[in-house]
Amino acid sequence: MPITSPFLRPHDRVAIVSTARKVSAEDVAAAVEILRSWQLEVVLGESITAVHHQFAGPDELRRRDLQQQLDAPDIRAIFCARGGYGTTRIIDQLDFSAFTEHPKWIAGFSDITTLNCHLLKLGYESIHGVMPFIFAQPGGEEALESLRRALFGEPQSYAVPPHPLNQPGTAAGELMGGNLTLLQNLTGTASDCPTAGRILFVEDVAEYLMNIDRMMVHLDRTGKLRNLAGLLVGHFTDSQDNAVPFGQTAYEIIATYAAKYDFPVAYGFPVGHEPQNIALICGHQARLTVTSQGAELHYL
């Protein structure tokens, strides 16, 4: 069973860093105020305001910044400021030995799927959830509240309407997943996690439908789908198509491969690159129930 880090309490110190795309202090100013309203003390890492082309500073600076927060025993949670690209460039140079002595929550999504999976491989829970860069986005209030509840250990469950592609059933297992592109790219690396017996969730943004199919073929051929407990299919935002149409939507593509198996599948789950991006605790046991009335996810 993955280790659950201590839940946050008022007056805890938390850090904001950027492991990927550049971000300014102004970009996270609203998030700082929100975290302070949660009675948390906020520390900004040196990667906030650092710039190296599209990155939040060179690889070594971003690595050093995250490492400092991982090592600091008084930092109780680390928020990754935004996604983009860059986390995979530094993940293998990080030392998690101090982290294992003082586990803490790490939260983010998109490119941060790398960290979510790496921590699960090491045996620790983390949070796939909204990031400081978009804490104050219109329509994101429920997502932000779900993140706060996850961090402070408050109970929550989720229910979504029925979808014509859903596969009914009930399953229990540890949650894992994130961005489909990252999950496929992590295959065979030190951050690659077994999927057997787990509830996988996937989402993506601005991907070509052909690429979504290619990635699903890859996951299927590598056995990642074969022994899943269940599957949550989140937002596939702004999917692209070629001049000659692929002929299926993102959901229809995924259904092609999910239908080969008998695990429950829930489409339209509110996770991904849209304001409705509820927090999911990677590594935590949950129960998924899919019926004709819709789908429900409960933590165990």
TrEMBL record:
Keywords: Carboxypeptidase, Hydrolase, Protease, Serine protease. InterPro entries: Carboxypeptidase_A_C_sf, Class_I_gatase-like, LdcA_N, Peptidase_S66_N, Peptidase_S66C, S66_fam. Residues 14-129 form the LD-carboxypeptidase N-terminal domain. Gene3D superfamilies: Class I glutamine amidotransferase-like (3.40.50.10740), LD-carboxypeptidase A C-terminal domain-like (3.50.30.60). The keyword Protease applies. Pfam families: Peptidase_S66, Peptidase_S66C. It comes from the Bacteria. Residues 173-288 form the LD-carboxypeptidase C-terminal domain. Belongs to the peptidase S66 family. This is LD-carboxypeptidase. It comes from Hymenobacter cellulosivorans.
